[in-house]
Amino acid sequence: MQQVLAILNDLKAGQKTLEAGQARLEAGQTSLEDRQIRLETGQTSLRVDLMARMDRREDMNTKIRDDIAVNFGTADAVRRANDNTREELRALSEVVSLMHRQISRLQTEVEQMKGSA
């Protein structure tokens, strides 16, 4: 009978050890669940931060593209104005050349008229 009591005591001690181990496992599981929640929260925060940063970068890229487009437009306008100025200068040069010839011819005619008079 004492053997049965000793075995029962051993079983009770083993059961207490198992219960203590189970309590540690449950505490560990709770700790893991808490860490998982913190990880999920951190991941959500990171995603929000990354999206905000990407939006800022996209806005900067858009502004840079707009600046480049404006600068190209300005450069094209300057080039067209320069081309127009060259064309106007060429046309003016032709007119001046024609006027010079006409003046020379008229001057010759005037000299001939003075000589015959």
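^ that was protein a. below is b, sequence first then the tokens
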Amino acid sequence: VHFVLARGTTESYPGTPYSLASLVAQNTTLRTNYENIIYPAVSEDTSDSYFIGRAAVGAQMTAYARRCPQSQIVVLSYSQGALIVGDALAGGGGNSTLGKATPPLIPQDVAKRTIVFYGNPRHVQQQPYDFGTAGVKLVQGKYPRLPSQIRTFNERYSEITGDWCNVGDGVCSPSEGADALSLHMAYAMDYDTFAANWVLDKINAVRFR
């Protein structure tokens, strides 16, 4: 199992996704390793961090899949990391901050076993892969996806994706009101145990309690 970790804005490597990767690794007999997506992880509003990160996801994941085609790739991402992962997979851009709409950067034949988003800026409401307190709420991320991007993502990845969003987190559910930083920073504590079991199911490993 190869974990691809995409950290959030201002986090140092490996960031929030590492605790989830560690929990999964500790509870499977499968061999595991990980790599970080290498990108600045500074504000996408005032820098080219998003564009660098999106390109890095496409390049790194494609290169690894070609190099190790038998590995199971598990992508774990948080905040801006979820933004760049989702946009590399489904196509990016589509607004004034993220630029013009672009096609996916990762070929469909690049095998991915599991995708986890925590605090996803492009969270889409009422999807079968939505988890967290926003799972049954009509909330959208601060950068709503274009309908064509939603279709592409769902056709390719809906069965292997888990998207965790807390209602009130100003990144994944800004339509709910004020930006609540504490909710945006609570994903590992709130959901790692559940998400780890979910990932273990996806990689056909033994669940833990």
